[in-house]
Amino acid sequence: MSDEVKQDLLTKGLGKKYEILKVYVKLYAACRHAHAPIDAVFEALKGQFIEPGEITRVSVETYSAAVRLAGIREATTPSAARFSIPFSVALAIAKKDVGPNHYCEEAVRDRSIQALAQKVEMRVSEKWEAAYPHKRGATLTVHTRSGKTLDVEVELAKGEPENPASWDELYRKFFSNATCLLSGRDAKETGGTHHGDRGIFA
Length: 202
What we know:
- By secondary structure, this protein is of the alpha+beta class.
- It has ten helices and four strands.
- Strands 2-1-3-4 form a four-stranded mixed β-sheet.
- Helix 2 runs parallel beside helix 5 and helix 5 packs across helix 7.
- The radius of gyration is 19 Å and the shape is globular.
- The termini are far apart.
């Protein structure tokens, strides 16, 4: 399909380099551009509790493709919510979870989540623009009514080959997805416990 044939590319690194090792694992049920901001939320709120109503503004600095493709503030459907960084950030703050069961009609209709999404400001950062696409990072700043600010920078989202997910994180994702259709018991029997039981995580 190209104008120039480069046959050497077919065997370059054959048996030494494996493309599958470059594949990332999506731990969240959202657009890939939202993953670094979501990670930043979880890191910022780790070990502390902040009422969503106490948050006055959330700033997300990232690369232009993320702002252009996933910068919509008002998501009107679950599908649109998955492609909205502001909604995903608000969901992560409000629910502490961004699994597939949380991107639903109920969440989209939740006025508190939508109000929080409206407080999320998207900006293009020269740093992240220069790093893209090799690094799809983000800088998140949470501002509160008390004047407190929380700043977190995520260079590579969890699940990237350079920042791999742990087996515990992979199991939690499997279990969350499986229990959308199966009972907790059946999901455990299917996946094992990743500590030696029979199943795909045995």
